[in-house]
Specification:
Blueprint (H helix, E strand, L loop, with lengths): L2 H8 L5 H4 L13 H6 L26 H20 L1 H4 L5 H12 L5 H13 L23 H5 L4 H12 L9 E3 L6 E3 L13 H18 L10 H13 L4 H13 L8 E2 L2 H7 L2 E2 L2 E6 L2 E7 L2 H5 L8 E5 L2 E2 H8 L8 H9 L4 E2 L3 E8 L2 E8 L1 E2 L18 E4 L3 E5 L8 H7 L5 E5 L21 E9 L7 E3 L3 E3 L10 E6 L6 H10 L4 E5 L9 E6 L3 E6 L2 E3 L15 E2 L4 H5 L4 H11 L1
Parallel strand pairs: 14-15, 15-19, 19-20, 20-24
Antiparallel strand pairs: 1-2, 3-22, 4-9, 4-12, 5-6, 6-7, 7-8, 7-10, 10-11, 13-14, 16-17, 16-18, 16-23, 21-22
GO biological process, one term: signal transduction
GO cellular component, one term: outer membrane-bounded periplasmic space
GO molecular function: serine-type endopeptidase activity
């Protein structure tokens, strides 16, 4: 097979082991995945897989415009009923099976009147809707559900009235398919059949996959309004893509593109076996990073193997197998879900020089000279692959630098060390907190108390309303309480870059609220808030940011990231000289 095709395919998604380093780990950012697995809520044993019936029109090579429009309406109504109809909320029906059973008759309809009559009969069979005395609409909601599609559609008045009746008397009790974490308030998606026995589901189940995911975003994603595309248009666009996926690889690619539409770096794709197979098991023995608009060699994963490579630190990759690197970058963007461009390039860099073959042809710049050569690739198990910045295992989580400056490494800190840190750093000239690593402990409140003299707002969260899916409200602001008897009076500098993500970004927000603080570095990954995982057909799994995180004034952090007070970007010259330019800038600022 043409190696360019292999190269294109193996770079299509995240490997779970890579992405897991970015996930939140503390109880305030728990995704409840272990709780779900413990309680066996992903695939209830009492529910058999849906009946697989033939759907004549879906078997065609093309779909008419009217059929796509009808399938859009079906997907919206199916999801609307799933999260609003009281009888479905009780778990009385296997709602996947109901969709699959309904599709054959639905796809035979020719006229809108037949369509609406069939849908109305389908809904009536679910049972009567009791009058709801508690169904209220909040006038102060930050985001409100959009039900305008009901009135704007070409549905019959009778069907519109039925859907409106269901909304006005929607479920107010527990829902079989979703509940909210008691810890933070993110949605937990339960009783979703993953259909793991068939990694390439039939067309009906693939359509179900799209409907499931689209409706979860429609009703439970706090950042839906921030996406580049209107979410309403995504359903229509992806119906043909899901139906006509030709094989397992193409199906996984389509799912990956879909989750990329929400522009959330938390939205990785796990268990994508075919994509991982094409990506290959072999890696270059060095790290790439996007610096000064180039993919640059910044470190090695194996010193001895790196010596055998023509590349060295500071070299710039310009071509892979003769194709310009930025053309490859443009072709890959849709396969790397990310909240902002820098986070996306960060993640692509991890996989650019990866293949199922043992060598890869490159062209590169070394200094001012252009060169080309073959880079030998190695199995991952033979390399010390890490994400972001290498952690020196011999260094402690905190230490005193020259000129009596305290330094805290967030990737190694433990909460039990905080009393000692406070005592040790009490008389230092300043403190640097390095947030360029995934935190090893959750410290915004415990360590933050050391830097404020009174309770200080630093963030507010938007949470979904279980009684009105799609509605999000702000809860009370998150505050740092003061450790009044032990408050630090010196300067505080926080280091960030594109590897500062999720819990680390939340931590940066807390320390930014300190009056004497400065944030130094580059814009962060822009994906804040605890994650919610969800299962998709074919045994796939993904995640979303489950709550909204904002500054106290309502400014979002999602997509935007934490923007430094003083921007310092690494340079190729700095890489060549072995400098940490962000840390050096912080030390310079503390001289003043």
């Amino acid at each position: 097979m043409n190696f360019k095709i292999i190269l294109f395919l193996f770079l299509l998604s995240f490997n779970k082991s890579f992405a897991s380093d970015y996930f939140n780990t503390h109880k305030a950012f728990v995704n409840d995945k272990l709780w779900i697995e413990k309680n066996n809520l992903h695939t209830p044993p009492s529910l058999p897989p849906p009946i697989q019936k033939a759907s004549p029109d879906i078997a065609k090579d093309t779909l008419s415009i009217s059929m796509i429009e009808n399938l859009v309406l079906l997907g919206k109504i199916w999801g609307f009923l799933k999260y609003h109809h009281p009888e479905i909320a009780k778990g009385k029906y296997d709602w996947d099976e109901k969709l699959i059973s309904f599709l054959p008759d639905f796809l035979l309809i020719k006229k809108t009147q037949e369509r609406d009559s069939l849908m109305l009969q389908w809904i009536e069979k679910l049972g009567k809707i009791p009058h709801c005395k508690r169904c209220r609409l909040s006038s102060n909601a930050y985001q409100k559900p959009d039900t305008s599609w009901i009135t704007k559609s070409d549905l019959s008045e009778e069907l519109k009235n039925k859907l409106t009746e269901i909304f006005q008397n929607r479920n107010q009790n527990k829902n079989y398919y979703v509940h909210y974490s008691s810890k933070v308030g993110n949605p937990i998606f339960t009783n979703e059949n993953a259909y793991s026995s068939n990694p390439f589901p039939d067309k009906n189940i693939r359509l179900l996959c799209l409907y499931r995911y689209w409706n979860i975003i429609e009703f439970f994603y706090p950042y839906k309004y921030l996406t580049d595309k209107k979410w309403d248009s995504v359903l229509k666009e992806y119906i043909p893509k899901f139906i006509f996926a030709k094989n397992e690889t193409e199906y996984e690619q389509t799912v990956l593109q879909l989750i990329g539409e929400i522009q959330d770096t938390h939205a990785v794709l796990w268990n994508a076996n075919k994509i991982n197979e094409w990506r290959g098991e072999n890696f270059a023995p060095f790290q790439l990073r996007y610096i000064e608009n180039h993919f640059v060699v910044t470190d090695d994963y194996h010193p001895e193997f790196s010596k055998l490579s023509p590349l060295k630190k500071g070299d710039i990759i310009t071509h892979i197998h003769g194709k310009p690197i930025h053309a490859i970058l443009d072709s890959l963007k849709k396969y790397f879900p990310a909240s902002n461009p820098m986070a996306q390039k960060r993640d692509i860099a991890l996989h650019l020089l990866r293949s199922s073959q043992k060598n890869i042809s490159i062209r590169y710049l070394s200094g001012q000279k252009s060169a080309e050569g073959m880079v030998k690739l190695y199995p991952r198990k033979e390399l010390d692959i890490y994400i972001g910045h290498r952690i020196n295992k011999n260094e402690t989580s905190f230490r005193i630098l020259k000129r009596n400056i305290g330094y805290i490494h967030i990737g190694k800190i433990q909460n039990k060390e905080i009393p000692t840190i406070k005592k040790t750093f009490r008389n230092t000239q300043g403190i640097i907190i390095d947030l360029r690593h995934p935190p090893s402990a959750f410290v915004p409140y415990s360590l933050g108390a050391y830097f404020v003299t009174q309770p200080t707002d630093f963030a507010k969260l938007s949470l979904g309303n279980p009684q009105n899916p799609g509605e999000f409200n702000f809860k009370m602001s998150e505050k740092i309480k003061s450790d009044r008897n032990n408050t630090y009076s010196g300067k505080l500098i926080i280091l960030v870059d594109e590897y500062t993500q999720s819990q680390a970004e939340y931590t940066a927000m807390a320390f930014r609220a300190v009056k004497s603080s400065l944030i130094v570095g580059t814009t962060t990954a822009g994906t804040d808030g605890n994650i919610s995982t969800l299962s998709l057909p074919g045994g796939l799994e993904t995640a979303i940011s489950g709550i909204g995180v904002y500054y106290p004034n309502g400014t979002p952090t999602q997509s935007v990231g934490i923007i430094p007070d003083i921007i310092v970007s690494p340079t190729i010259e700095g890489i060549l000289q072995g400098k940490d330019e962000i840390l050096e800038k912080a030390l310079e600022l503390l001289k003043k």
